[in-house]
């Protein structure tokens, strides 16, 4: 019995990570999605409370952000705001599934499809928080800084805090990471490029009346757009690899501390 539980959270070998079967969202121990790597008991009230604090933090942040910066609906065309919505959806859904697990273990453990959706959402969000933050602070912030205190606060809330908070969260949770799962954030990136192109073709304007959403993704300049797409693709693979490294670090420390189940 001890051997079986020890193998449950053991990471795959690096060779196995590159097997195409691990493109799928399959994990043999669904209970790992409702636990912290560091809890000793079957259910942890501390982890549940933490989950809801994170959910409330990003949920209230999103609601207030949409109210303040709605700007005739143009708030929904920016990648930053797609990412902030994803932060809220991920943190709230995480709190909900842990709550259901505490209330009725069997009813949630058997909902494999829902857990797959959550896992994909979690990984996409984790990677995109870094992509958005890196691009913003290096390419956009130097040219355009917040004009007032409120904008400055939300600027940090949307571009600065998510990668920090969700990397720390990745060190706390118990579910695994897969190297090949970079395809899921790549899929969202591709969807956003398609959206910006359709928006451009249909004559959509940003909140300042320009024909592009981001200067670096201006479809009127195909070469610049192509460079941006390649840069984001490279960043995406790098960030996915980095967060996979965070997962391996967590598992390594947990193993040494006897917390690997």
TrEMBL record:
The keyword Membrane applies. The keyword Membrane applies. Keywords: Membrane, Transmembrane, Transmembrane helix. The chain crosses the membrane at residues 48-70, 82-103, 115-137, 180-202, 226-247. GO terms for cellular component: membrane. This is Protein rolling stone. It comes from Drosophila albomicans. The gene is LOC117563228.
């Amino acid at each position: 019995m001890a051997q079986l539980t020890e193998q449950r959270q053991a990471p795959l070998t690096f060779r196995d990570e590159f097997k195409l079967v691990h493109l799928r969202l399959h994990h043999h121990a669904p209970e790992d999605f409702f636990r912290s790597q560091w809890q000793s008991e079957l259910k942890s009230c501390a982890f549940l409370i933490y989950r809801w604090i994170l959910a409330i933090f990003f949920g209230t942040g999103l609601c207030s952000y949409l109210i303040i910066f709605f700007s005739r609906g143009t708030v929904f065309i920016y990648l930053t705001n797609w990412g902030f919505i994803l932060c809220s959806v991920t943190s709230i859904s995480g709190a909900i599934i842990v709550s259901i697990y505490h209330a009725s273990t069997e009813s949630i453990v058997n909902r494999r499809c829902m857990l797959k959706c959550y896992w994909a959402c979690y990984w996409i969000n984790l990677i995109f928080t870094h992509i958005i933050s890196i691009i913003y602070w290096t390419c956009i912030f130097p040219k355009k800084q917040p004009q007032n205190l409120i904008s400055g606060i939300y600027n940090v809330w949307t571009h600065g805090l998510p990668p920090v908070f969700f990397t720390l969260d990745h060190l706390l949770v118990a579910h695994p990471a897969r190297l090949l799962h970079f395809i899921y954030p790549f899929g969202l990136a591709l969807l956003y490029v398609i959206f910006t192109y359709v928006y451009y073709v249909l004559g959509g304007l940003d909140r300042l009346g320009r024909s592009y959403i981001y200067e670096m993704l201006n479809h009127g300049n195909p070469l610049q757009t192509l460079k941006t797409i390649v840069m984001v693709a490279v960043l995406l693979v790098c960030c996915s690899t980095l967060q996979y490294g965070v997962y391996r670090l967590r598992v390594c420390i947990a193993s040494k501390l006897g917390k690997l189940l």
